[in-house]
Fold each of these.
Amino acid sequence: MITCNFCRVTHRYIPDDLVKLCGDITLDRVLTRFKCEGCGKKHYLRMELHFPNGSEYGHLKVRRLTEIRTVTIPIWADDVLH
Ligand SMILES: [Zn+2]
């Protein structure tokens, strides 16, 4: 689960989704791929592992990955006509 200590918002993610998004990297580095949707900041985020207990199955809210979008960013450089 990832918590923003600034907004006090926690989202729970499924490890499989994180692997899909980030590849097989360590959890600390997964966090660098996230920023808070509330405040847009990264450095308030904390990640904790949560091992669900039996009663949480079917109840605990999680955030699932539905789509990975790749954004195309143009890079411009000034030059002279030649
Ligand atoms: Zn936040």
Amino acid sequence: MPDWLLYTGGRRRHDGIDRLPPPPPWRAFDGGPLLPPPSGGSGNTHQATTYRPSDDAVQQVNAALYLRRPLLVTGPPGTGKSTLAYAVAHELGLGPVLHWPITSRTTLRDGLYQYDPLTRLYAARDGGAPASDEDIGRFIRLGPLGTALLPYARPRVLLVDEIDKSDIDLPNDLLTVFEKGEYEIPELARRADPSADVMTADGPGGRVTVTAGTVRCNAFPLVVMTSNGEREFPPAFLRRCVTVELRQPADEAELSAIVREHLGDLADRSDDLVRRFFERSASGTLATDQLLNAVYLCRHADADDREALADRIMRRLTGPMDDD
Ligand SMILES: Nc1ncnc2c1ncn2[C@@H]1O[C@H](COP(=O)(O)OP(=O)(O)OP(=O)(O)O)[C@@H](O)[C@H]1O
Ligand SMILES: [Mg+2]
């Protein structure tokens, strides 16, 4: 394994992130005061510890870490685009993945923070402190993007999941934030005292101090943006990303290794299903987890039902729909 690779895809946790060199000068950020790394695992432990990335994916993850650039991960359904984020967070001990699922209604502001003026109003009405000095931070919750850009000493992992489902403006809006590595919270910035302890996307209890109404990152997060290719991205967006395309496993040996990683001994005698999956995927899209489901189910089903059952589970997602 070449020495420069911090993330190796080896599924074993290590402190390789400590070897991450300073950023290129054009991607250096100076937010502070520094926050300690968040505690807790990446979330999704089984997926994170069973993931077998391609060499290309390993290399591009490292490129994104070194260059402090977002990683755009494309590929067909079920090729492990989302799981990659959890696998990196687990191996490098980067804490819980900040998950931001994108829909056509998602705005930049949703990812940055939410301010809840109504609850604030009710709190004041019900005998809370006067509006000028009450704790406004209780009504501001940073979103996954907003939390990832806090001045952590180590990069957080932000999964911007299915960015191709977004409204047309979101990729460009994101670009601006990723270029600057900072954002403002106007509701705080315009106050006489623009500092507050706000909530984060890390769940209850996670509160951090925002000063001068602005959040600026220190270690740029590892941003993993996934796309099923439902949309083309503008060149200005692409040139600021590191990109990687994930593919279906290249051969039966690779597929078998993935099945064994997930199912251990339950994967014994699954060669026929792997072969069948591989044959069927030649004429249409099949996702790896369909094979995992089929192998698991067939271990519990009667031998006679095995083939028919597997075919029902391994239906092609595109291409001919007949189950031959
Ligand atoms: N290379 C791999 N090694 C181990 N498991 C894998 C691999 N690729 C996919 N899987 C498994 O397949 C399942 C689907 O992965 P995941 O949800 O990350 O795919 P995806 O590309 O994000 O799919 P979608 O486009 O539908 O969101 C997961 O259970 C994952 O663990
Ligand atoms: Mg996904």
